[in-house]
Amino acid sequence: MNIIASLQQAVAKVVEELYGEPSDAAKVLVNTTPPDFTGDYSIVIFPFVKIAKKAPDAAAMEIGESLQKKVPEIESFNVVKGFLNVEIGDAYWKKFLLSMPVDGTHGSLPKNGKKVMVEYSSPNTNKPLHMGHIRNILLGWSNVKILEFVGYEVIKAQIINDRGIAICKSMLAWKKFGEGKTPESTGIKGDHFVGDWYVFFEKKTMEEYETWQQSTEADKAYKELHKEGENEKAFFKGFKNKWFNEHSVLGTEVREMLLKWEQHDPETVDLWKMMNGWVYQGFDETYRDLGVSFDKLYYESDTYLLGKDIVAEGLAKGAFFKKDDGSVWVDLTDVKLDEKVVLRADGTSVYITQDLGTARMRHKELGCERYLYTVADEQNYHFQVLFETLKRLGEPYANGMHHLAYGMVELPTGRMKTREGTVVDADDLIAEVIRLAKEQASERGEIEGLSTEQKQENLRRVGMGALKYFIIKVNPKKRMIFNPEESLDLQGQTGPYIQYSYVRINGLMQRIERENIDLSGAGDYTEIQAQEKELLLSLHGFPAIVQAAADDYDPSLIANYCYALAKSYHRFWHDLSIFNADSENAKAFRLSLSKAVGAVLASGMNLLGIEMPERM
User: By the 8 A CB rule, do 160 and 299 touch?
Assistant: First the structure.
């Protein structure tokens, strides 16, 4: 049992003894004491003031006196404005440090027998992965590692949107204009190759639309349908989708291609398989570069017809209702989610139909306690409706569903647009951060002496660490702006700043091994300094941070913890001597403390999917 749990239990017992009313130890608030006050931990006394029938300071003093008698680790205490600040003796901290595992398991929990599915990435096969996908993937992957760390069996999944009108746009463009070119013949990565044809289709569509706008048919449409005072430019901007669906030659051809695919036309299906195959090869390369993988792949082409049986069941149960046109709806107005169609009048599925079926299929296959969907916050309403609908259907897994919503990623120049070809591709972003890492390393000259392979690996780890940390450090719910140059700043809150702390500690560990330094005197060290206590408190709090990140699906808690720990270590490094310490015991203690910090930094960053370099 750690000291915080001991304090919580002791406070609950003391309160019951003093005031005759039982308290829940788990609800006793124990926080790290702010740096402006004396103490290691602050106990919030205000919840007990009413039953104590005393002023906050008086109650805190009374509880503190009893607490010190029951908890031998408490060396002293003080009271400030109703807060009981306790200071823990050096003996506890030395015991904690010397017993703390440095193999990356500090804060981990044994297997709990529960399963969680985490879905992330889930791209479309008409374009390469882009910067928004990177945030999705990194959030999903870090949650996988965090949940595994605290004892869950985690199933890593994605559903690939491999069908539909957007995919047919790429297919049609290549079929009409591709002249048999392939990723191999052009030297273009498969997903980029297909994505280029999607952009090309949009270009050809705009050319067709601009030509059509000069026709008598367009003039007639404007005269019949425009609003009073609406000029032609504004009208045609808003009319584009209707034109595409009713007048466009390319629009007609792409809808015919989708219909052929749904009818299993061999030529269309072969083309679809070939072009999707190119995309999958490209995706796999990007996933390898990001260091992520999947256990389960689901394809929309297999799942888009699922859910119709569930709709029929819902109708029979009275969970759904049918309108006069034959469409089926769920009424969620009582929870302010309006009415939502679950099956069209012509009997075809909508997205939620498919998602209902996929959810049931997955639960039958996987049997998880939790299902975590990593999807941008633009889909908040969809998931609210999906989860509420599953509950009304009485699905046994419905309460275990969670939408990990995240804000959009923007560049300093603003938002990106796929159709206009202005999206920052994931591959280009990865290449850019590694290029910048190389540029900065060359300026500092700090990786000289390494082999070419070692240099490349170090630069990859620094560049990818910069990219991943900059994205993960932001709370998922917030929108963010990604700046590649800022992500590599060695003086800011960045991945490389934390990696540099680790590299510094790694140098110490190599010297310990090289010089065969004895660390056995660490337990005899006396008078722990403030900078050392700050590190010990931080190390002690790591398991709670990891658990909070797991509970909230928020890896930014660990990212910000790692930065704070690295910052504290830099302060310790500059303020206290290690190899020239006043005694051998002090040197052994500080080296042991450094080793523990290095282990937790590596462990924490690993939970974010970030590798540590050996040199910087």
Answer: yes
- Homologous superfamily, domain 426-475+485-607: Isoleucyl-tRNA Synthetase; Domain 1 (1.10.730.10)
Whole-structure pTM value: 0.93
Three-state DSSP class for residue 156: strand
The partner residues of 160 in beta bridges, in order of sequence, read: 299
606 secondary structure, DSSP code: H
Asked if residues 476 and 556 have their Cβ atoms less than 8 Å apart, the reply is: yes
Q: How many other C-beta atoms can be found within 10 angstroms of the C-beta atom of residue 398?
A: 18
Q: How far apart, in Å, do the first and last CA atoms of the chain sit?
A: 38
- Which residue type does 9 have? Q
Q: Give me the residue spans of the domains in the chain.
A: 3-88, 426-475+485-607
Where helices occur in 230-373 by DSSP H, the ranges are 232-246, 249-262, 266-290, 300-303, 308-317, 351-366
Phi, psi for 423 (deg, rounded to 5) = -70, 145
SS3 category, 53: coil
Q: How many CB atoms lie within 10 A of CB 396?
A: 9
User: For residue 163, which amino acid is it?
Assistant: R
**Residue 76 belongs to what H/E stretch?**
strand 74-80
Q: Please write the tens of the pLDDT for every residue from 161-173.
A: 999 999 999 999 9
Q: CA separation (Å) from 41 to 3, 5, 260? A: 10, 12, 68
String of DSSP letters for 512-523: HHHHT---GGGG
Amino acid 308: pLDDT: 92
Cα-flanking dihedrals φ and ψ of residue 32, to 5°? Answer: -65, 135
Q: Whats the size of the chain, residue-wise?
A: 616
pLDDT bracket for residue 424 (50, 70, 90): confident
User: Which residues, in sequence order, are bridge partners of residue 430?
Assistant: none
Strands 296-299 and 153-160: parallel
CB 49 within 8 A of CB 82: yes
**What integer pLDDT is reported at residue 616 of this predicted model?**
78
Angle, nearest 10°, between helix axes 556-575 and 530-552?
170
Task: Tell me what pLDDT residue 417 has.
Answer: 47
Mean pLDDT, the chain, integer = 94
Please list the residues that pair with 154 across neighbouring strands: 116
The structure tokens 């908040």 sit at 380
Contact 105, 543 (CB under 8 A): no
**Answer CATH for 3-88 from 3.10.450.50, 3.30.1360.70, 3.40.50.2000, 1.10.472.10:** 3.30.1360.70
pLDDT of 443: 72
Closest Cα partner for 46 from 68, 66, 23?
23
pLDDT confidence tier of residue 447, bands split at 50, 70 and 90: low
Q: Is 317 exposed, middle or buried (0-12, 13-18, 19+ CB in 10 A)?
A: exposed
Q: Is the pLDDT of residue 88 over 80?
A: yes
The pLDDT tens digits of the residues spanning 15-32 come to 999 999 999 999 999 999
250: CB partners within 8 A, 6+ apart: 172, 201, 204, 205, 208, 244
